[in-house]
# Entry
Amino acid sequence: MSIILEYIALFFIAIYSYLEGLIKLFIPVKRKSVSGEIVLITGSGHGIGRLTALEFAKLQSILVLWDINKDGIEETAEQCRKLGAKAFTYVVDCSKKNEIYAAAEKVKTTIGDVDILINNAGVVFGVEFLNLEDHQIEKTFEVNILSHFWITKSFLPAMMKKNRGHIATVASVCGHLGLTYLVDYCASKFGAVGFHESMTVELESLGKDGIKTSCLCPVFINTGFVKNPSTRIWPVLKPEYVAKTFVDGILTNKKMILVPSSVKTYLILANFLPQRVISRINRIQDVQFSTMFRSATKMD
Ligand SMILES: NC(=O)c1ccc[n+]([C@@H]2O[C@H](COP(=O)([O-])OP(=O)(O)OC[C@H]3O[C@@H](n4cnc5c(N)ncnc54)[C@H](O)[C@@H]3O)[C@@H](O)[C@H]2O)c1
# Structure
């Protein structure tokens, strides 16, 4: 097709997409059925991972729960079973590639091909850059992003064969903007957003339109992951609300799930605002949390 025709087609696709978006505001989007689907969630021994597992358990999915914390996943599995779902636990340290590959093989041979993969496990240190130990930086990258590569490499081939599946990435708003004392964390979450974006594009260009992708990017959540978080602009989110929004996003094949959704407006504006204005907004935001070195550190 000539470049002029390509641009004309692009114009009509854009109009169609906006109209479709407008109509979807009024007509509820159909949710896909996940009953009997195998859902693997890393970091499901606590917080968002556990609550996401419980949402899928309510929908009668088969849960495969990975975490470094044995008691945590056993507790999650128990709660899933009470909801009538099957749940299997695997103690896996997601910072270790060999443990991931070994556990993935066990899952494939004993349970089956994973239908929905949720890369959720995460760590944060919250330390001023020059006080970060090398091993902390390495851990942040191993868990928050490298594990996504090893785990996805393990389960994507079966999805590719069937042209069916879903890969969900738990990133953060910190994957879209930088915050003080979170240099390693933000960099790893930018990596997670990049992983999601490029995986989405690659699957599309390979014609694998049956494999869906979603990326969760919330602001602070009250899970204890970050100690005593507060900001003057964004709320500290309830974990149950985030998990429900996340699962709803997966069921409706939503690509980018920003929580709260108003973050989207800020991110669009931030692309156009002068750096001085952004610095001022950061001061107004007044992000605070306890770090490992100082408590209730003021982050302005
Ligand atoms: N809580 C927040 O404020 C917030 C905000 C945005 C994004 N997130 C992201 O959400 C995800 C879940 O965070 P959460 O708030 O539920 O935290 P959480 O601490 O409640 O849960 C994290 C889970 O990951 C597990 N985990 C940690 N290291 C692991 C490893 N090496 N191998 C396997 N499991 C490991 C932990 O044992 C824990 O069960 C993380 O990726 C985090 O970056 C959290």
The pocket of nicotinamide-adenine-dinucleotide is lined by residues 42-43, 45-49, 67-69, 72, 92-95, 120-123, 143, 170, 172, 218, 220-221, 223-226 (CB under 6 Å). The longest strand covers residues 211-218. Residues 175 and 193 are 6 Å apart (CA to CA).
